[in-house]
């Protein structure tokens, strides 16, 4: 006897469940990949530092707002809290070693700028320095601090974005693909791979 449609659907569902069988883990931050960025900051006396942050992202488009989450015991925390500003510096393949270094060494013990051969640049809206070698620098003023637990979230309003001119095409558009940006996934750094599509391509009409 031929299988009913309902029976076929049930078998298909069972095959899918077996193929994508899940294990339930305890709650954790398994949202990957994420950007690993170098955040530059300074206190009111001018002492500065670089901290690597992977807990970062966009919270609002208009006004443009982003966030970084930082442990209160980190050396840079008090600088950001005191000055109310920070710069998010995007990391590239050329900067990935510096990005890792600035995440595992403390500014209490070492000048990370000198150790990594990075250059302090002048931000257009902030007193905190930006990293010249980074292709994109996002200047932020702290709008709000949310105490969450292991980390506190600094929500920052974007005051300016500094873009390396050589990555801007003749139409004035930023070619982010040429910046060779990197991503962080579960303890490892990756170069961004091939283009799979652009926003809206799934519903775009074909010629």
Describe the structure.
- The chain has 207 residues and is α+β, with helices and mostly antiparallel strands.
- The protein has one domain: Electron Transport, Fmn-binding Protein, Chain A (Pnp Oxidase, Chain A, Roll).
- Helices cover 18% and strands 31% of the residues.
- The protein is built from four helices and eleven strands; from the N terminus they run αββββαβααββββββ.
- It has helices spanning 5-19, 75-83, 96-104, 112-116; strands at residues 37-42, 48-53, 56-60, 65-70, 85-89, 120-121, 130-131, 136-147, 152-163, 182-185, 188-191.
- The strands form three sheets. A seven-stranded antiparallel β-sheet has the order 2-1-5-8-9-4-3. A two-stranded antiparallel sheet has the order 6-7.
- β8 (136-147) and β9 form a beta hairpin.
- The protein is globular, with a radius of gyration of 22 Å.
- The mean pLDDT is 94.
Overall 3D shape: globular
Q: Please give the alpha-carbon distance between the first and last residues.
A: 46 Å
What is the chains' assembly state? single chain
How many discrete domains? 1
**Mean residue pLDDT:** 94
The low-confidence parts are none
Proportion of beta-strand residues: 25-35%
Proportion in helices: 10-25%
Strand order of the largest sheet: 2-1-5-8-9-4-3
Largest sheet, described in full?
7 strands, antiparallel
> Structural class from helices and strands?
alpha+beta
The CATH class assignment is Mainly Beta
């Amino acid at each position: 006897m031929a299988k009913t449609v309902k029976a076929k659907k049930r078998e298909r569902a069972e095959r899918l469940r077996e193929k994508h069988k899940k294990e339930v883990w305890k709650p954790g931050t398994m949202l990957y990949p994420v950007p690993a960025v170098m955040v530059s900051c300074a206190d009111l006396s001018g002492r500065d530092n670089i901290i690597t942050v992977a807990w970062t992202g966009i919270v609002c488009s208009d006004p443009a707002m982003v966030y970084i989450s930082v442990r209160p015991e980190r050396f840079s925390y008090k600088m950001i809290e005191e000055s109310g500003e920070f710069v998010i510096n995007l990391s590239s393949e050329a900067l990935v070693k510096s990005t890792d270094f600035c995440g595992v060494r403390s500014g209490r013990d070492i000048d990370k700028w000198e150790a990594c051969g990075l250059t302090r640049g002048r931000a257009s809206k902030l007193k905190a320095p930006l990293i010249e070698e980074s292709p994109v620098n996002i200047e932020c003023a702290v709008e709000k601090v949310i105490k969450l637990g292991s980390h506190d979230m600094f929500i920052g309003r974007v005051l300016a974005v500094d873009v390396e001119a050589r990555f801007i095409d003749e139409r004035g558009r930023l070619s982010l693909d040429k910046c060779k940006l990197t991503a962080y996934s579960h303890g490892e750094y990756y170069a961004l791979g091939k283009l799979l599509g652009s926003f809206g391509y799934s519903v775009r009409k074909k010629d």
